[in-house]
Amino acid sequence: MPQGLSTNDTARLETVINTARMVKRGEVLFRPGDNFDALYAIRSGSLKTTLTSANGREQVMGLHLGGDTIGLEAFDNGHQVCQAAALEDSSVCVIPQKQFERACRENASIQRRLSQIMSAELVRKSAQILILGTLRADERVAALLLDVSARLHRRGYANDEFNLRLTRHDMGSLLGITLETVSRTLSRFQANGLIETRGKLIHIRDFNRLLAV
Amino acid sequence: MPQGLSTNDTARLETVINTARMVKRGEVLFRPGDNFDALYAIRSGSLKTTLTSANGREQVMGLHLGGDTIGLEAFDNGHQVCQAAALEDSSVCVIPQKQFERACRENASIQRRLSQIMSAELVRKSAQILILGTLRADERVAALLLDVSARLHRRGYANDEFNLRLTRHDMGSLLGITLETVSRTLSRFQANGLIETRGKLIHIRDFNRLLAV
DNA sequence: CGTCACCTTGATTCCGCTCAAGTGTGGTGG
DNA sequence: CCACCACACTTGAGCGGAATCAAGGTGACG
Fold first, then answer.
1. What pLDDT, on the 0 to 100 scale, is given for residue B7?
2. Between the CA of B64 and the C1' of D4, what is the distance in angstroms?
3. Range of weakest confidence among B137-141, B196-200, B202-206
4. Is strand D in 7 Å reach of the CB of A179?
5. A124 CB contacts (<8 Å, ≥6 apart)?
6. How many CB pairs (< 8 A) connect A and B?
7. Phi, psi of A200, deg, nearest 5
8. Are B50 and B99 in contact (CB under 8 A)?
9. Res. B181 pLDDT band, cuts 50 70 90
10. What sign has the CA pseudo-torsion B58, B60, B61, B65?
11. Regarding beta strands B19-23 and B90-96, do their DSSP bridges make them parallel or antiparallel, or are they unpaired?
């Protein structure tokens, strides 16, 4: 969140981020319709956001890792639109909306940073639309693995081995395919030596061939 | 754009929006990689935004009508990520980024309005992800027709008849299906009395059955 | 009035879904 | 600590919806 801010601006930001909150695995951080009283910056762990349509179908909108900020959709009409649930025991920074808005008003850098974060989220969603609109099943799975790998790498973790806390069902929902297709695709990737999996643990063995779809 | 702003705030906003620009049908307003020097508020007409992936597949990201603001993704890294092209002769307000940022700094209402616009765009993209991830072809086509209808209605136009300037190909791309499927679906809707079409002109005859997928 | 892009409709193919059965596996309570 | 149980995962068989391939038809514009 403080990325690109000076030490002074970061200090100002920290005055509004006074509380951390634990979210246990499976616990829901916010639901559609909740009042917009805070943004949440993920400190550790991972969450998924989901949206359920009128006819009851659930779609996983995103997988969110440490460093991500969630709840941004609520600026629109003052209410949350997604549901956010923890995939593992996680810790989030609570950023009270009122105080954060004041900070934005007083500090142009923080304000610009907010625009940047929201814009980055727009880009992320655009990428997801591209995946859902143009890729075949195996390409989607490869794209997910490479995306998670790159995001972890950017945060200083190993990029070739990680725990993907999503279930096969959630991965399928995120990618617009069924859990069976996800499972089969991962099995095939493993058979072809692209990856190794053991349950939720994923080891990428051949980045080039995974990139080549 | 000035929605929800006081007359004073609107006046302040208008000081930065000094130029209108015509964009002829087929003309490109901005491209991926262009420097972020302005946002664009659509005054009249319609545009499409598209994104082309590394392997050359093009995805229509959105259909943008009068009142919409485009170019918001560029806050992320200072460059445009989508391509915006006019679907018909259109007019857009040019909002120079530098001056707009100053206005945001000086005027908290304008700043809040920016957050709101970006958030609304996040919600719109979420809805598109939901469509691409969960709906079948005929449901997607129905969703598009109803979405356009509702947006026009909100702007005071008739909600049961409109000109959809997208080609079948673009509609298909937007919805993640092929142009043939779009064409067949529209024909079937017409045969069943849900709509009437004559080329790009669309007349909705039965909202209820269209809603019922 | 000819040309070109867009659209419609049909035939066939195939990718991913559905249905089904069996195999882990982690969390809980005895 | 172990046994159990619910839930998650894997794999197979068959089907179906949408893609692909193909062949006209339609309309806008110079």
1. 87
2. 57
3. B196-200
4. yes
5. A62
6. 125
7. -90, -10
8. no
9. very high
10. positive
11. antiparallel
